[in-house]
Amino acid sequence: MTTPMEKRTLGKTGMKVTTLGFGASEMGHGGMPLRAAAQLLNRALDAGLNLIDTAECYGNAEDTIGQAIGHRRQEYYLITKCGHLNGFPGDWSGAALQHSIENSLRRLRTDVLDGVLLHSCDLPVLQRGEAVAALAQAKAQGKVRFIGYSGDGEEARWAVDSGVFDLLEISVSIADQEAIETVLPQAAARGLGVIAKRPLANAAWVHQAAPANHYHRPYWERLRQLDYDFIHGPTAQIGATALRFTLSVPGVHTAIVGSTRPERWQQNAELLAAGPLPRAEYDAIRSRWHERAGSDWFGQR
Questions:
Q1: Which of 74-83, 221-230, 264-273 has the lowest mean pLDDT?
Q2: Would you call 193 helix, strand, or coil by DSSP?
Q3: Each residue of 282-292: b (16+ CB within 10 Å) or e?
Q4: What share of the chain is helix, strand, coil (3-state, %, to 5)?
Q5: Which segments within the chain are labelled E, that is strand?
Q6: Are 194 and 11 in contact (CB under 8 A)?
Q7: Between these two residues, 298 and 283, which has the higher pLDDT value?
Q8: Helix, strand, or coil (residue 113)
Q9: Which domains does the chain have, with CATH numbers?
């Protein structure tokens, strides 16, 4: 029996998205055969997920999504990220971003994208305005419904304060709490739809020794210092607590999770059926962060 999944209104966009979204990075970079990826994506939709988050630089993710579930396009909201043309960051010109959006539309087999986000560009890029203008133009042309920024720190604060964007994708997890105080309150005040990335802190707790992967190691090191009581429990329970924490944070509307296992979506839906963390558990995690977090513990790109 499928567990119903909670939906929340994604800020001023008005989109009613499931609290659990599909993040396509792991699938795109993992070299999954199309048949397996199609099973994964269709099982996600069958489990009730209605938000797909991808990017032009996630390997073959956009092509795979288009081929595998393009025929079910009316069942999900589709968000992609731009700025890493051909997989390499650096070209934030208006022409490059317009080309990127056109390519994403083609690969994803859709006439319109529900959201396009600038993918972790630096503050000077945002301040110059050309990249922001390119997204605004795509929105005016009807190619994109809503525009946003994906990133952390001072860039995320600028994006929120600018008043230009509809969406913000930002790091929020048991090991990434800086934004809870420095960004999310203002994002809520401006009505931005907030998508939490890496809500499971890359499941760094599964590693007994420090992982070599530069995406995982910072979280592994942080969790060792934070040493939450629940980190020493069963792996499934750790994941449930971590995910429920992120979705208990005020201002967070949805959390994107990646997987290559089709059965994972229904399992995660069942974990979330318990609802937000009890206030005492949530407060304990926040207190431990305030006690032990380093001053340089910013969101990971």
A1: 264-273
A2: strand
A3: beebbebbeee
A4: 50, 15, 35
A5: 7-9, 16-18, 20-23, 51-53, 77-82, 113-119, 144-150, 167-171, 193-197, 254-257
A6: yes
A7: 283
A8: strand
A9: 13-202+249-274 (3.20.20.100)
Distance separating alpha carbons of residues 246 and 253, to the nearest angstrom: 10
CA dihedral 149, 135, 145, 266 (to 10 degrees): -40
Only one residue has tokens 């859709």, namely 110
- The pTM for the full model equals 0.95
- The candidate with the shortest Cα–Cα distance to 271, out of 17, 20, 16, 53, is 20
DSSP 127-141: HH-HHHHHHHHHHHT
pLDDT of residue 113: 98
Per-residue pLDDT averaged across 12-32, rounded?
92
pLDDT tens for residues 113-125?
999 999 999 999 9
Residue 143 CA neighbour count, 13 Å, CB half: 20
| Alpha-carbon span 142 to 144, nearest angstrom | 5
The count of residues in the chain is 301
Can you read off the two tokens belonging to residue 216?
């995982």
For CA atoms 235, 241, 244, 245, the dihedral sign is negative
> Sign of the CA dihedral 108, 111, 254, 221?
positive
